[in-house]
Design a protein that fits this description.
Blueprint (H helix, E strand, L loop, with lengths): L2 E5 L2 E5 L18 E5 L8 E8 L3 E9 L4 E9 L2 E5 L8 E9 L2 E9 L4 E10 L13 H13 L3 H5 L4 H6 L2 H6 L4 E15 L2 E14 L2 E16 L2 E16 L5
Antiparallel strand pairs: 1-2, 3-4, 4-5, 5-6, 7-8, 8-9, 9-10, 11-12, 12-13, 13-14
């Protein structure tokens, strides 16, 4: 699939990036979705072209006029999909690339517009399907970590509490534990990795971004978390963890 802009009798190509993937153009099939508007707030009209390649790869190419031709601002592809995401101000300033679908879970990489290009900003776990209720995945230490924070994001506090070990639940009753999330609006977990693992025990680390309603203000806090995770007859469970605040800021917009 190829694209162009015809301005009177002048033809401007919408050229995909060169390289080994250039043969597929803006997509391998003759169907696409087109968005033409200022999507990132830079004052220019962007042209966003969604295409497809292979069995399930989604493509997104974003172009803007630079005074001489339509320049490529970004080219993205993901085997779990690609989408534009708003920051709540009405601008789609972020591109979300979805990779490595793992059953109900998918890994997302978020790129945001910094004024000159789309730069990596954040990576996170997400649900591959939007339908609820979700089946929480606890077959690995990283999956139970992701499921725990996604349950908090869904406001399914009983589901999140159920992913704690019996020892953790015995140390803190549900009502007391749940009260700690009474201001929480949303949660994301990213940069997750296994620090150590031996037998049925593991130490996992991640970064968590939490949105809270603090006296009517929306505050975004980024934490570094570490959890001890244990394998039980029901699957992996979170036993005890530590948190450290890395950054905190008030948001002007809340999506």
């Amino acid at each position: 699939m190829l694209g162009f802009v015809l301005d009177d009798d002048i033809w401007y190509d919408l050229a995909p990036p060169e390289g080994e993937d250039a043969a597929r153009g803006l997509g391998e099939y003759s169907t696409c979705e087109l968005i033409v508007r200022d999507i990132n707030g830079d004052g220019r009209i962007e042209i966003a072209v969604y295409g497809h390649a292979g069995a399930r790869t989604a493509l997104l190419h974003i172009f803007a006029w630079d005074g001489a031709h339509y320049a490529l601002l970004g080219a993205f592809d993901g085997d779990g999909g690609v989408r534009l995401e708003s920051d709540g101000s009405g601008l789609a300033d972020a591109v979300v690339v979805r990779l490595r679908p793992e059953g109900d879970l998918v890994w997302e990489i978020v790129y945001t517009w910094d004024g000159t290009h789309y730069a990596w900003t954040w990576d996170r776990y997400a649900w591959f399907y939007l339908d609820r209720p979700h089946a929480y995945v606890d077959d690995t230490p990283l999956h139970v970590l992701a499921s725990f924070y996604l349950a908090l994001d869904d406001r399914d506090l009983p589901g999140a509490y159920g992913l704690l070990s019996a020892t953790a639940q015995a140390a803190r009753a549900y009502d007391e534990w749940a009260w700690g999330f009474n201001t929480t609006l949303g949660v994301e977990v990213g940069a997750a990795h296994i620090v150590t693992q031996e037998g049925g025990r593991a130490q996992v680390a991640a970064q968590v971004r939490a949105l809270d309603n603090v006296d009517g203000r929306v505050v975004l806090t980024t934490y570094e978390v570490e959890w001890q995770v244990v394998e039980t007859g029901e699957g992996w469970r979170l036993e005890n963890g530590t948190t450290q605040i890395l950054d905190q800021q008030e948001l002007e917009y809340y999506p």
